[in-house]
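User: Hi! I have a protein structure encoded as tokens and I'd like to know what sequence might fold into it. I'm fairly new to this, so please keep things simple.
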């Protein structure tokens, strides 16, 4: 099952975006799905992850309190709602399937789809 992120765009500081991670098939069997981002010249960094049931969520310190990850297994989609956006949130955002190990490391995820650009600027 491949995952594809969408919903990025240009938003002003303090603004809001809701992004989607759509699966090519059922995501019910996928345990953890994570969101990562990569800014120019920087390494890919963890943003948030969610368990199969949605009952457990994990956030980076920068995302905590501003971003919300959720999933709708019936719609085969994982969402990332981002509020109070800052210029430093500007990056390409990706979603991926967790394949084992620590949730915070990009190397522990696979099936990366094409990312979606988020630009926070006035």
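Assistant: Happy to help. Inverse folding works backwards from shape to sequence: for each of the 122 positions I chose a residue that suits the local structure. Here it is:
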């Amino acid at each position: 099952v491949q995952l594809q992120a969408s919903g990025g765009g240009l938003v002003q500081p303090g603004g809001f975006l809701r992004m989607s991670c759509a699966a090519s098939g059922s995501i019910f069997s996928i345990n953890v799905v994570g969101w990562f981002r990569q800014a120019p010249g920087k390494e890919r960094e963890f943003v948030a992850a969610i368990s199969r049931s949605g009952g457990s969520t994990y956030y980076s310190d920068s995302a905590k309190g501003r971003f919300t990850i959720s999933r709708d297994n019936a719609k085969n989609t994982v969402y990332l709602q981002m509020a109070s956006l800052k210029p430093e949130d500007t990056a390409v955002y990706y979603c991926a399937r967790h394949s084992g190990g620590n949730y915070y490391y990009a190397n522990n995820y696979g099936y990366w789809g094409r990312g979606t650009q988020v630009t926070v600027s006035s």
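A useful reference point when you look it over: The two ends are 37 Å apart (CA to CA). Feel free to ask if any position seems puzzling.
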